Amino acid sequence: MAVQEAGQGGAAAGAHGGGCTCGDCPHGARAGHRRAVAAFLLKRDEFAAGQGLPAAVAHSASASRQWVSEELTQSAELVAERARAEGEARLARLWWRTTSVVWILVVVLLLVQALTAIGAGWTSARTAGLLAALVTAGALTAASWFHRARGGALAPLIGEDNRLSTSRAVAGAWVLFVAYAVLVLVGRLAAASGHEERDALIAGLELGRGAGVVTVLAVVSAIAVLVRRVVGVRVLGQRLQKVRADRPRAADLLTDDAGRGTFADIQYVVIGGVALLFAAVRLGRRPDQLPDLPWGLAVVVLISAATYLAGKYAEGGRPVILSVVRAREAGDLDAPIRTGDDIEIRGAGFVPPGGQGADRLSRMVVRIGAVHVHVPLVPVSGGFSNPTDAVLRVPVPADVEPGRVEVQVVTAAGMETNRYAIDVTD
Q1: Are residue 213 and residue 256 in the same domain, yes or no?
Q2: At CA 13, angle to CA 10 and CA 15, rounded to 5?
Q3: In a domain, 41, yes or no
Q4: Beta bridge mates, 207
Q5: Following DSSP, what letter does each residue of 158-198 receive, concatenated?
Q6: Among the record's GO biological process terms, what is one (predicted)?
Q7: Is 73 part of a structural domain of the chain?
Q8: Domain span at residue 51?
Q9: What is the DSSP string of 207-264?
Q10: What pLDDT, in 10s, does the model give residues 64-103?
């Protein structure tokens, strides 16, 4: 498929550059990104198979490795540029999709109310619920329009790393639900004709009726604010690596930065969603008061929130160098580290979550004494053998002075490891 895309990319590029962001143009940002990815994959697999090397560098293993790394780096930078363009184009169109989903939900609510009204009749509570939904949908539509360049109504849920935030999404869902429930009571209060009915509706807003919902709302909102602070402090304190994503995805709510499902996020979304569904059913059954969320269910949500917060404190960690040894090829004699030799740096956390792309890997640097050495990309079929999360392999340049020098790795997220001393001989 990659070969076919690369072959078709040349003809399509002649009709259109592929780097524009002109809406739904078939040769716009998405097509440009796909062609760049296909060309990169084709080039990587060719180099992994030993093809495409110029004769001037084919005789030297170190020269060919350096040349391949530079070629792949340039191609990866083009892929990253196209990915950012596609992400911006998708984000600009997202406001229309979120607005459509909101109004579809309003239509679904109308259909449900119409179906359930058969036999029971239409009541003022159904009218108030529908009007509250219209007001909420109108407010979300207006917010989507003003933030249409940043994802519409989802703009407040997108974190600084350009990913959907699980804590903000859960808190936003509860805020919208409570606002909708209050609007339903406001509508019923406006339509009430008798003093007793109005007093009963006002009493429905008392804390004793909705203590569980209010407690959950306060906790999930505090968690959203606290998590942002925790992540920011840990990044600045070099205890957490964060790499910016090309665009937000729905899967961000259930996964970590590397795209792997995480227990803390999944249980928080699932339990919060189940409790929200229960509260919505209670509101439908008793629209004259705030949903009386049972304390048992509220405590379950609080435990889930505490688990999520603990997961945020536990994730990440600073990359560390455990050892540095001289890289030995088959047939080489054992010897000390000399300039021109390759060294193998063993440790953990060299590749930050979300930094597995070639453009991120090419930004890794190893400081050997006062010399900065860029980690070469070594392609293999389907990926790269260097660098990896636990092992880096770099040459010791001739500019390194013999003697005792310190080795330090700088990751793609800008985080530095500990310093590890090695002896370099003449």
Answers
A1: yes
A2: 120
A3: yes
A4: none
A5: B-TTSSB-HHHHHHHHHHHHHHHHHHHHHHHHHH--SHHHH
A6: carbohydrate metabolic process
A7: yes
A8: 26-78
A9: HHHHHHHHHHHHHHHHHHHHHHHHHHHHHHTTSS-----SS--GGGGTB-TTS-B-HH
A10: 888 999 999 999 999 988 988 888 888 888 888 889 999 9
